[in-house]
UniProtKB/TrEMBL annotation:
It comes from Hyphomonas polymorpha PS728. Residues 15-145 form the HTH marR-type domain. Keywords: Cytoplasm, DNA-binding, Transcription, Transcription regulation. It comes from the Bacteria. This is MarR family transcriptional regulator. Transmembrane segments: none annotated.
């Protein structure tokens, strides 16, 4: 959207496109996260899975996918790699054999404890006051929810 707030009627200029600002910020985040998470043997998506499991142990694959906005064809290979690294276990639910529950291992919990410095490092790299980052996070969550709602209506 142009600086004057008027709607774009032709092809959007990258500098005015909200989607490009979000996309390029995501790429920048990944570049900051990569060397930090490499120390722990994790990729950014794997790190997100580990945090989600830290918050709610024993989620099913589908619950985890919903929480992280990941399809099972993306999540399953990611979980297999985490399991091969010894960070998580995957077990069939005793009450419903169709479901697979994911849990952190002791090694997984340890790596999360060791990586507790990551949020502070990312905060420092962002170079913005906490209040501004909190407002941005809230705005982006609203945008995400609105866009998901628009897709579901279509």
């Amino acid at each position: 959207m142009p600086a004057d707030g008027s709607p774009v009627t032709g092809p959007a200029l990258l500098d005015h496109a909200v989607c490009f600002a979000v996309y390029s910020a995501g790429l920048a985040f990944n570049r900051v996260y990569k060397p930090i998470l490499d120390q722990f043997g994790l990729t950014y998506p794997q790190y997100l899975v580990m945090i989600a499991l830290w918050q709610a142990e024993g989620q099913t694959v589908s619950e985890l996918g919903e929480h992280l906005f990941l399809e099972s064809n993306t999540l399953t290979p990611l979980l297999k790699r985490l399991e091969a690294a010894g960070f998580v276990t995957r077990k069939r639910d005793e009450a419903d054999e169709r479901q697979v529950r994911i849990s952190l291992t002791a090694k997984g919990r340890k790596v999360l404890e060791e990586s507790s410095c990551v949020p502070q490092q990312i905060f420092e790299a962002a170079g913005m006051p906490a209040e501004k980052l909190a407002a941005l996070r809230s705005t982006l969550a609203d945008l995400r929810d609105n866009l998901r709602g628009a897709v579901e209506k279509a």
